[in-house]
Predict the structure of 3-phytase.
Amino acid sequence: MTYRILPFIALSIFSSCSSTRSIAPDAIRPTVITQQVEFDTDDPAIWINPADASQSLIVGTDKETNGGIYVFDLEGKIVNKVTGLQRPNNIDIAYRLMVGGKPTDVAVFTERETNKIRIFSMPDLKPLDNGGIEVFTGETQRDPMGVALYTRPGDNAIFAIVGRKIGPSGSYLWQYHLKDQGNGVVGGTVVRKFGAFSGKKEIESIVVDNENGYIYYSDEGAGVHKYYADVNRGNRELAFFGTKDFKSDVEGISIYKTNDKEGYILVSDQQANRFSIYNRSGSAGNPHQHVRIASIPFSTLESDGSDVTSVNLGTRFPKGVFVAMSNGKVFHYYDWRLIEDRIKQGK
């Protein structure tokens, strides 16, 4: 693997888009487009700098054999990377995992060709996993793709929910408890296997609502599933929604939080270059009834993974930032205020 700190390079907005032919005239335009990675961007995650939120970072995957993990600043410039990874796919961030007796922020991502999840420290991208944690052990269908992290209230235990390219309905996703094995190396223990699947395409994008305690994941050809995140609350499906809201693939999911309980769920309508928006808190009287409230065109092309935060990140992003993958080997950053205006308009 190669670890490199890169110098700042001037950013040219829109220069790295591969095409604009499919962008709707009324699409929201990005505030920032990142520098290009080598192969193919897939999924971003936002790391909030606890000392200064305006110095927060975006970490994203370059999905290919010998691909990598790239760290971008809020100007879209590459400031760090790890290359030589074997098809890294989805990525997520968790805070204050105890490693070697110290609270450590971590980036966790799937490495498809090795059938592992990888765990690196943030923001310096140092491996903490002794080469990785094997997942779906004993299964004939492995090929991990999606991952999301859940921090349980009370004991702050951290869990990785991992999905795969192909898997059986009822146990498509596996949940792992991540924990220091006592030597400064993080290991993972399976605590449950769950997850309905329509059988139509595949499951990749997963997101966790920590405060409300829910897992959402995209069943690409069918809709969005919802489960409890805490293994102690069982494997009953709570909702299956968005079944008629998408042109084709149901893809990247992210959650914007206006407070601990409310906000928005954003889901990529990949081939339409749009995002469907749902109320995080559901409908009046039913927290599990999620009805689409807006379908917004974006300048992303065939967006796969995404992430969002409501934290004030400075003058460009005072109400937070939405980050989405786009064709062209890049990620797009959107000022949340632009999205908020469209949600209010219902379009």
